[in-house]
Structures are given as structure tokens and as C-alpha cells.
Amino acid sequence: MITKQNDLISSVANLKEDDVLSIVNNRLAENENPLAIVHDCQKGMRVVGERYSEGRYYIAGLIMAGEILRQVMELVGPVLQSCDLVEQASGTILLGTVQDDIHDLGKNIVKMLFACHGFTVHDLGVDVPPAKFVSESSRIKPDVIGLSGLITAAYDSMKDTISLLREETDKWPKKPYIIIGGSQIDERVSQLVGTDYWVTEADAGVTLCKQLLMG
Ligand code: B12
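Above: inputs. Below: predicted complex with cobalamin.
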């Protein structure tokens, strides 16, 4: 059965830029929840990644997919940010993509969504060295430290970052929660890098952090 969800997922997967943008515009015009649109794009991006792993797409396919999602977020971002979700201040999150990793589309969605839910967000950008996470944490004293990482090659720096952060924050009266996210993250990765909290969706991250901070 062809549904509007499948339409968007397959158009992203097939790198059909014009179709993607027109479907997104139509779905926004129907006042659909912008997060549902983001979820479908994320599924399509996973298929792009699988096709790249299988050798059916090359690096140009990844670049194209990234460009398509960037354009989608230009349309969806303002709706997401003008959402009725905006809540009272919920806490502070320090966010960044770990060293050796330059993926930032997911992290930028996380940034928008946390801000929408009343968090103060400090974004350190991409390819952030462990020492930078530590120095900024000491300065800002966030409630949550969010590390984004999509490639296996960056798990070492994620692990180093967490271990240095623990050394630093163990001295604090109230230790921050360290949460990792990214499409390839799972329980095994979270154990490898040394944290209890991991997600593969931005909204799951918001829900988790609210539970952790507010009970
Ligand atoms: C687009 C893309 C690119 C673009 C990125 C553009 C950009 N500005 O970000 C470009 C072309 C730059 C790129 C480069 C590379 N990529 Co790439 N890329 C992708 C692709 C297709 C989509 C990523 C994406 O944007 N997804 C959409 C967003 C919305 O989803 P997301 O990132 O998962 O984020 C969501 C959640 O995970 C969560 N989240 C993310 N971070 C965090 C953090 C916190 C704290 C929280 C709470 C939540 C959270 O919230 C987001 C919204 O829900 C993925 C495939 C995939 N399955 O992810 C491959 C993929 C990640 N790339 C891959 C590879 C191999 C590479 C390269 C090494 C290729 C190369 N040979 O050069 C380079 C790496 C360069 C580097 N050093 O970082 C592999 C990694 C495999 C692995 N296990 O290591 C993947 C999985 C593809 C594959 N299956 O082979 N890539």
C-alpha cells in the first residue's frame, strides 16, 4: 500500500530531491506534526546508508542525501521551532558531535527540539575534541551532556570524552547525565563508551532527559 509516509521514505531513499520537497510542503500544508516528517526522512536516510554499505550508492549519494535533508529542515525547522511545545525552562544541555565525526544534521534537529522543550542548548558543533567538552562543561555546568556520533571510527573519541567528563564531573555536587545519540548507536555502543543513556531519535532524547531531570 502506498501511503504518504512510504512516499516520503522512498523519495528520500531514491534521492528524488524535488519529490521530497514537494511531499514535505504538502504535508506541512496539511498541518501534520513536523516530527512525523522528520521521522520519515530519517528512515529514508537509513536506506541511503544501507545502499551505500552495499555499494549501490557512492559518497556522492551520501552528500546528496545530506543536502536533501538540509533543505527539508529549512522547511520543517521553522514549524518545529514555532511549535506549541515551548515549555518552561527545563534544564541546560551541552551538545556536540564527537571528534572525528562531522555528521551534524541529526544533532541540529536535537538542538531545535530541546530548545522547543524549554532547554537552554549550548552547541559545540562537530568534530569536538574531548578536552573541549570538558572545558565547556566546567564553564557551563549543564544538567545534561549530549554526544552525537554516527560513525564507528568516532566511538574511541566518544569513549575518551565520556571518561574525561566523568573525571571532571565526579567532583561536582550534582553530576550531569551523559547521553549519546545517533543512528548507529545501541546498547552495545553505550556499554563500550561507558554511558547508561542512549537514543536513536531526538524526541526520545527529550523525553528521557525530562524524566531524568524532573522524575
Ligand atoms: C548524510 C550522511 C552523510 C553526510 C552528512 C552531512 C551532515 N552535514 O551531517 C556526509 C556526506 C558528510 C557523510 C560523510 C560520511 N559518512 Co555518512 N551518512 C549519512 C547518512 C546517509 C545519513 C545521516 C543523517 O543525517 N541522518 C538523518 C538524521 C536526522 O538522523 P541521525 O543523524 O541519526 O540523528 C537523529 C538521531 O540519531 C538522534 N540523535 C543524533 N545525535 C544525537 C545526540 C543526542 C544527544 C541525542 C539525544 C539524539 C541524537 O536525533 C536525530 C533526530 O532524530 C548516514 C546513514 C544513517 N543511517 O545514518 C550515513 C553514515 C552515518 N555515514 C557513514 C560513513 C561511512 C560516512 C563517511 C566515513 C564516508 C566516507 N567514506 O567518507 C563520512 C564520514 C566523515 C566523518 N569523518 O564524519 C556510515 C557510518 C558507518 C559506520 N558504522 O561507521 C553511515 C551509517 C552509512 C552507512 N550505512 O554506511 N555522511
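The domain at 91-214 is CATH 3.40.50.280 (Rossmann fold).
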